[in-house]
Structure formats: structure tokens, C-alpha cells
Hints:
The structure holds 2 protein chains of 2 kinds. Chain A is an all-alpha fold. Chain A has helices at residues 2-34, 37-42, 54-62, 65-96, 102-113, 117-130, 137-161, 165-173, 178-189, 191-207, 210-215, 224-234, 239-269. Chain A has a single domain (65-269), classed as MetI-like fold, CATH 1.10.3720.10. Chain A is 79% helix and 0% strand. In chain A, helix 5 (102-113) packs across helix 7 (137-161). Chain A starts with a helix and ends in a 6-residue tail after the last helix. By secondary structure, chain B is mainly alpha-helical. Chain B folds into 2 domains: 3-73, no CATH class; 89-325, MetI-like (MetI-like fold). In chain B, helix 10 runs antiparallel to helix 11 (230-241). The radius of gyration of chain B is 26 Å and the shape is globular. Chain B starts with 16 loop residues before the first helix and ends with a helix. The interface between A and B is large, with 118 and 118 residues. Chain B: Belongs to the binding-protein-dependent transport system permease family.
Amino acid sequence: xxxxxAGRWLAAIPMAALAVATVYPLVFTxxxxxxxxxxxxxxxxxxxxGLRWDAFxxxxxxxxxxxxxxxxxxxxxxxxxxxxxxxxxxxxALSRLxxxxxxxxxxxxxxxxxxxxQVIMVPLARTLGQAGLVDTYPGLILAYxxxxxxxxxxxxxxxxxxxPAEIVDAARIDGNSLYGVYGRIMLPLGxxxxxxxxxxxxxxxxxxxxxxxxxxxxxxxxxLMVGVxxxxxxxxxxxxxxxxxxxxxxxxxxVLYLFFQRQIATGVTAGSTKG
Amino acid sequence: xxxxxxxxxxxxxAVGTAGGTAHAAVRTAPGRRRRTNxxxxxxxxxxxxxxxxxxxxxxxxxxxxxxxxGVNFSFTGDGDRNGQNVGLDNYAxxxxxxxxxxxxxNVGLLVLLLPVAVAVPGLLATFIYLKVPGHRVYRSVxxxxxxxxxxxxxxxxxxxxxxxxxxxxLLGAVGLGPIDWLGDPGTAMYxxxxxxxxxTFGMGLVVFLAGFATLDASLIDAARVDGASLPKVVRHVxxxxxxxxVQFVVVTTMIGMLTSMFGLLYVMTGGxxxxxxxxxxxxxxxxxxxxxxxxxxxxxxxxxxxxMLVVGMLxxxxxxxxxxED
Lengths: 275, 326
């Protein structure tokens, strides 16, 4: 046991160093955001001379980040709502109902999982453009929904497969239609899975830049992440403000992570172990 | 990282008797159906289709149909020859384009670096599983960058890796450098891939830890009681028990490298310097968004899809194989 214990302490050293390396880039950025430009030029590493929020305020108003934040919130909320609704309905039907074609539909979803966005982005942009949906909220919401729906359907199908069929039968005997079973039984029962997959979907949509860049070209419709990519050009000579803007965009994810770390990890590991 | 392409082990279980009874009633006793459960019978036959309709329409219309459209599109021309059939001209142009061949070479580099990207989280997860001091904290800390947008990570590392930035200050303090991390064609791709691995190893770590959690602790105890050394325990008990997890991490890490580095490339290098950090996904975006050559971009998409298909088949094969092991 003793060599093993010594080994553990030995391993703890690189582990701790790596933990520092994981956190440090963000701490460094926060420190830069608290500095004046003069301080930054003089010394990059020294702690800022106090908690100064000017850079955050400057980035917020100067780079129009409030508008981008609203755009992101609208698109993410719409996409997640649509994803959870369509995903749970399909998940219920594919896991608990027997109907002609269910297997083909399930395999179709499986196939769609393997189509990366990069492969379909040209024709998708064209199709949405012909429908007049490029540079609109509904267009981006539809694109996000299409992108993450196969994953959502799979997770919900897998979750509902674990709910005993007797529960569905009992609800039917009580006089519920299948829609009633879905609305009164399956939706409430699915809450843990809906929370987990909803948070993951929200993260995917929130973090995306390629789809938003392609389908929301105008400056006023930028999502927050596209807005961040524009910061560098705007504040190339004002690094503290640049850092402040980057951190503003990181805060919502940090908060989400602090509250829902367990659900995120559950969603990420889905399918990695048997059962 | 494309978590979106991980199929959980689910199938259309089709064990629900609810829809089944409705079918039976319809087929065997059309007359009695009206009196017994006629109120729902007709609606029940339709209900499954109504429930799957939104998902099926969205997936078919905005994922499967564009795929077919894109492949078709890659055989037509750009600009003056818009809409005309040009055969394989786009593919010929593609492989003549040094930017595209550079992007394929970079894919090769990613494949070579794959073992590193898998070994790092695997090793760290092993340490955490062995409960090194502070193991509870590490998991949360390591996983955090994995949920941040590549855009934010890229922006942060733009600061760190700037020529007059802190990374070079550190090197200078020990008498090395400075290195033009993102400005030198020889180092830029390694810098970007390094940042990608830094940002995503937490994802693999969490998957490994989930795999460790399924290991049978009594097997490990038994092996140790029988006098097996730690390396032997790892080799003969831990690794076989984790084979599915390892394969899962390999495939998802590869897919992540092929399809989720756009944000980093866009923010950190813009494909440069001298086109040294192009990947197929960046090439597609460049041809479509910047050069207005959608047909050429479609051809590149089709090539990328071929690469992804191989990875996807690999994943299916793994799922099937592990299904047999169960």
C-alpha cells in the first residue's frame, strides 16, 4: 500500500500543475481586463491595481454586446424549446409505440447523426435562402434544431426506453389518449433527461460560430459568439477592453457550468458505456 | 466537440403495448372497435406519426435532403457555368488547389496526434480513479474548458500566444524563444491543435471516468489479493474492462478534430500563415462564404463526408462489436 500512496502524491504534482494550466488562461484574461492599457503594456503578469470594471463597460457599450446577447438568447431559447418538444415527442413514439416504419425512421435519425454541418452547409444555406430565411431568427433556429435534433431524439428515445411499459398501459386504462399519455405522463417523467439534453443543446447553440456566421450575415443579427470574433479587429490596440468583451461572453457559460455540471457530464457520456 | 454525434445505445424498443392494442383492434374487430375503444382507435393509429412528424420533417428536410442536394451540386459549375453539368471538374480543381491538399495533409497530422489526444485524458482519468490527493477538484477544473466556446478559447489564446505575449515572456525567462506561435507556418498548426487538445481533453476525461465507474471493483481487489502488481492490474483487468470506452473516446475525439476546430481556426489564424492551418471545414467555409464558389465547396464537402463516413462506419462497427461483448 505504501508505494501506491507515495505514487498518488507523486501523480498529484503534475495533476495540480495541469489544473493551474487549465485555469490560468482565464485568470490571466480577467487580470488583463482589470488593467489600464498603460498597466498592460508595462507588465502583463502583475496583478491589476484594483478591481476596475471599465473594460467590461467599454466592451459592453462600445461593441454592442447587449444586442448580441439578446440575439443569442432569442435563438438559443427558440432552438432549445423546439428541440425538446420535437425530441421528446419522437423519443416517446420511437421507444414506446409500435407502428409501421418506426425502425426505418429510427435508422434515418441514426444516419443523420453522422452528417456533420460542414458537409451540408452549402446546400442548406441555399435552401434556407430560397425560403427567405437567411438572416432571420426562425432560419437560424431551424438550422440549430436540425443540427442537434438527431442527438436529442436519441437521448430521449434511450431515456424513455427505460420507463416501464406498464406505466403507459395504466395511463391508457385511465382513459388517456396517446397525446394525453405524452403530455401528462411522458413529459413530466422525462424531466431529468429533458434538463440534461436541454442544457447540452443550449451550450451547443450558444457556443456555435460557424452556423451563425453563415446564416446570420448582417451585423445587427450577430449572436454573441460572432460578436466576440469581431472584437479583435475593433480593439486590436486596446487589449484590456478586448479581454473584457471576451469574458462577458464567457460568464453565462461559467454560471451554467457551476449549476449544472452533473447534467452536462451525463449528457456528454451518454452512449459511452453499455446500457 | 461534436457531442451531437454520439448515439446512445437505444433502439426503437417497440415493446409498448399501447399502440399495439390499437392495431390489433383495428385489424381483428373493426365493428367492435367503435363500441370498446372507438373514441381513440382512429386517433391512436395516427398518433405515432403525428408525434414523430416534427422531428422527421426537420431532419429529412434540413439534413438528409441537403446532403443529396450537395453531392448533386458538386457536379455542377460555379459562376458562368452555374447549373451546368461539369462532371468531375470540381474534384479535379480541388486536388489541384494547394490550399485543399494542405488541408488534407493537416487531417493526416490530426490522425497522428490522435493518440496524444486520447492518452492525456486516459492517463489523467486513471490518476483521478486512483484517488490522487485532490481528485474531486480536478474533475471539475479539467472539464470546464470543454464547455467554453472555441471562439472564447481562441480569443484567450490569441492573447497568450501573441508574439509579445506571456507565453514568450515565460520562454524568455528561461532563455528560450521567442517563438512566433501563430505567425510561423511551421508552428501555427501545432499551436492550434495544442489549444484544441487543451480545450477538449476534459470531455474525454469525463467519458473515461464514466467507464471507470462501470468497472467491477471486486475484480480489481481479487487481482491485488492474488498478488498482481499495479501495472499488471491495469493491463489485465482495467484495460480490457475499458475497451469500449477507449474506442468511444478515439472515435469521438477524431470526429471532434475533424468538425469542431472551425471556431479556433477562424479566431486564431484565419487559415494562415500561408494557408498552413487550413482544414477541410475551413476550406469549405472559405470557398462558400468568401470566394462564392459553392459548387467547389460542395465537392470539398463531399470529400469530407467520405472521410467522416469511414469514421462513422468505424463507430458503428465498434457499437456492434461491443453489443456482442455484452
